Amino acid sequence: MQKKANQVELTNSVITLRPFTMADLKPSYEAVRESMQELSPWMWWCHPAYSIKDTQKWLEYLPEAMDKGIEYAFAVVDVKKGDFLGGCGLNHIHPED
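Now predict its structure.
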């Protein structure tokens, strides 16, 4: 049986890329707030009023988006400690291309 995109994990001996979960709410929000200056010129959603509720809405949206092939987003986690390191993803996907 083929796994859904929101079930895929990629790993090596250093990091794991795995789908975001609600357990990533606080560390994801904190990462955005910490990187606000670097993200805001490039990410329309990253603005001074960005809140933890914005992060929650995004995390709730991701499973369906991944199932539909609209967006793929993964938490980057330290293999040994399990610490949240950040995130990565693909979006603005155009299947015809």
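The first strand starts at residue 10 and ends at 11.
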